[in-house]
Amino acid sequence: MMEYLPKSARGRASSPREVARQLAVSRRDFLRTAAGVALGGALLSSTIPAKAETSSKKRKVIVVTFGGGARDQETFAPEGQENIPHLMRELIPQSTFFTQVVNRGILGHYVATASLATGVYETINNFASLPPAYPTVFEYFRKDLKRPSSDAWVVAPSNGFNRIGESNNRSYGPGLGARVILPKHLLTAAMGGGSGDYEHLLRDNYETPFFAPELRGGEFELQQLEMILKLSVDDFKAHARTLSSPDELSVYVARQLMRQVAPSLLWITMHDIDVAHAGAYSLYVEGIRRTDRLCAELWETVQSEPEYAGKTTLFILPDFGRDSDEDSAGNGFQHHRTGDPLSRTTWMMAMGAGVREGVVFDRAAESTDLVPTLGAMLGFSPSLAQGKPIQELL
Amino acid sequence: MLPGDLKTEQFSSYPAEARKLVTNYLPALRRLPLSFLPSLLREAIEYDFKFPIERKAIEAELANLGSLSASELQDWFHAFAHISISPELEQSDWVNSPAQFVEQLSAYLWTTHQQDAFRKAALEYADRLRAAAPPEPLPMPRLGIAVIGQGVATSAEPLFRKLRPHGVYFNRVQPENGLNLLLNAVSTRAKAHPLSYGHWYVDGGQADRHDQLLTCVSYKGLDTARAELLRKMRAEIARPGMGPETLRSVMAQIRPADLGLNQDDAVLGRFQVKLLTEGSGTQIFSTTFAQWTAREALRRAQPLTLLVRFAPRQRQKPMNELISGRSNQVELDPAGSLVDADMGAYYNWLNQQRLPGAEQSSFLAWFENHNEAVAIAPSLPRGTESSTSADLATMLSWMS
């Protein structure tokens, strides 16, 4: 049996913690070899300077999460690097990279994204339309810093994520969260019923391929389109026709939002990779390649938009991993149901304002550390979050 | 209710053979922790519809549990005993609905952060059980065959990259009459050792002519059943208040007759229904269907021979549309299907190597109607390439 385990999981790697650690070391080695990054374990007094610090008042943060993530063998391992050329050649050399971000919570996309956004391992039903139980990063940000609703936005896949912007916590909650924009709902509204040429942009929640609820979109979505994004229905439809996936639609909407509203805190969730749940490996790899390209395009937009250039920190992280080939309880890339170390251990990159370039850290961090880190960067206090600020980014 | 309170009459709704089996071991079952027992009952309740080797495994497991002393039992199950169970789960009808219990338990374990502890306990138990009840020797070494790339002229990327390190990559295979040669070889093995459900042929499209000794499952052969299942899914999804978890429960209740499947072979019929109701994507993508069928056949029936032929799947569309079955014209994606099948072949090999006798097993993967194949066998070197020209029958002879 051991023969079929990856090298990183053989030998001494008996405990989940040890497997996760060795996975992180492998990732670091891949990155050092292929992307030329420096080992950051001992460099906190580093000679590598951080990009110019921006005052927290002017600073902007964009968080990009992937629903479902991708495994190392399809990404950072030598055989997978062909799938992520933009990350490898363009983004990682500009970033501080964390090779071991562990998600100790429930491995469902909605609840995991809620955990990322609250800094607490949420236990809400993954398949129900419920708000997070703990305050979200958007609520801390807006309440503590007295920011208007226009300053915190979420762009999300349609199914189930419409409640992600605001918790039902009594001290925060209604009126203090992010505004949520659901691109597929916008498109559905713009189409006025017939899906015509756009069905490829309306792919559903892959996590439950058995169940694909109807999309709805109406007057409110059309108002978002015209009043906020400054797009006519016809222009939106015309551009949508040139796109190939729901995540492309999301990034298009996010870019429009950046141009027209320029929120200081923008959170984008991507979901194309999760087509893996349908079991077709080629579609999963296509999703990885597309996501890689979209991340690069988003970073280009940050560089080119005056409101963002030079004062934005971009975070990119999967919500969790996927099952390994070696765990017989799973079915390899298809799902994330075993709870094995590979499905729990993912990575995170940060780049832009205030972040060192080309550095990799392989110490363990947790998914719940993101919100406290954002709090320390932007100057708010996420008092109920469980994680700790990531010192290497501060 | 707790396991200690179990009574014979509570199993009255179990199928006949399952009832007899379980009630024979009632004293042993009463001693087990609730975090464990329903998982065992979930298997036992299906006993009448299990493959022969699964039946033997359940019998051996129960016999082993019955033989454990009190102190041994404590030793085996102390980790399970530390798993906390909610009062709601304790009060649920876990005797008659063990699968539902296990599903709810899984959600509860995730929610209460006990998933890792449960997983560790389960792995330790499996290791102990394997040691206590080792598998019988095989009558012949196992052979797996994967045929990939039907309808593809050339591959855009190198094939068998994951399999090559484990065997010989042949680049001058004589492809003529290849599928027939392989089916004949499988047939010969079935005649030599005609075990029930011991030799399988899975086709992701239309099954080719084959020996009736083979257990055959094909995507095309389940067209009607798949269409009926998708119709039922659409009807359920349209019902008010329906959600993914409820839909899953509804699908778990579906039986072969509900999908118009032949009732002559109840075991295979139940197996086929589970492929479609428990597999994700098997209803819509033939490549997923072929890979998942192979996985489940290997895991459950543990065949001595398994030939899997992948076929082109339909092109990706929105899931709503795929489930709707509205489109009459199915557009295929042969190139994407080749990539799927290449990975599927690797998974077939991985799953085969998880079975007893792995060190003696062989595996052949062939790019259909082309010159490329990988052969893995104890008699062959690893990670090598050969330009020897040979047909598939000859290659199989080198592997035995």
Give the biggest beta sheet of chain A: 9 strands, mixed
Structural class designation of chain A:
alpha/beta
Please report the first level of CATH classification, the CATH class of chain A: Alpha Beta
Radius of gyration of chain A: 20 Å
Largest sheet, spatial ordering of strands of chain A: 1-9-3-8-7-2-6-4-5
Oligomer: heterodimer
Helical fraction of chain B: 40-55%
Total discrete domains of chain B: 2
Average pLDDT reading of chain B: 93
CATH superfamily of the largest domain in chain B: Alkaline Phosphatase, subunit A
- Structural class estimated from helices and strands of chain B: alpha/beta
Helix % of chain A is: 25-40%
The residue ranges of chain A in which pLDDT falls below 50 over 5 or more consecutive positions are 1-13, 209-215
CATH architecture of chain A: 3-Layer(aba) Sandwich
Number of domains of chain A: 1
DSSP strand content of chain A: 5-15%
Net shape of chain A: globular
Q: How widely separated are the two ends of chain B?
A: 54 Å
Largest sheet of chain B: 8 strands, mixed
Fraction of residues in β-strands of chain B: 5-15%
- Give the count of helical stretches of chain A: 11
